[in-house]
Write a structure and sequence with these properties.
Helix content: 25-40%
CATH class: Alpha Beta
CATH architecture: 3-Layer(aba) Sandwich
Strand order of the largest sheet: 1-2-3-4-5-6
Radius of gyration: 16 Å
Structural class: alpha+beta
Largest sheet: 6 strands, mixed
Number of strands: 6
Order of helices and strands: EEHHEEEHEH
């Protein structure tokens, strides 16, 4: 079980970072994840999908304010010839009410620290070309654009 990481904001309720550990918590994360991935429609299918991703090493770090999730960082440990050992950030999202509060930076920093602890050489993520605000955020966090991500849809019913 992961240790909660308290985050204190002046004048705000305490925010605690803790990895999601069960299906109840996965279900509680659905609405926040939909803010990043609006194509997600079915909470049950979301839980099944994340359970499958967890078998591949996916971890979902949640920012909890009281009993509500207000941010998420989904990531996995990987190895390849390009980056050697690295953490790939699949998902990083905070609720609209938490944007510009520093919570996204804190989630990313927690994942970065996990990468350092695991002796990773890199922290890697992708963002859409149309996501100018996200790109600016990542530049401010010290990430650099190193390439382009190409996609070819192969099945009509999948994104």
């Amino acid at each position: 079980m992961s240790q909660p990481l308290p985050l204190l904001e002046k004048g705000m309720p305490q925010i605690v970072l803790r990895h999601i550990e069960n299906d109840t918590e996965l279900a509680a994360s659905f609405a926040v994840m939909r803010e990043l991935r609006p194509h997600l429609q079915d909470p049950a299918a979301y839980i099944v999908r994340l359970a499958h991703q967890q078998t591949q090493g996916y971890r979902l770090l949640a920012a909890w304010q009281d009993d509500a999730i207000v941010g998420l960082a989904g990531y996995r440990l990987q190895d390849n010839l390009l980056y050697d050992r690295f953490i790939y950030v699949d998902d990083l999202v905070v609720t609209a009410s938490q944007q510009r509060s520093g919570l996204g930076e804190r989630l990313l920093q927690a994942v970065r620290q996990r990468a350092v602890d695991l002796q990773c050489r890199h922290l890697v993520l992708d963002t859409g070309l149309h996501m100018a605000l996200a790109q600016r955020f990542y530049f401010r966090q010290g990430l650099l654009a190193r390439g382009m991500h190409f996609v070819e849809p192969l099945l009509q019913d999948r994104t």
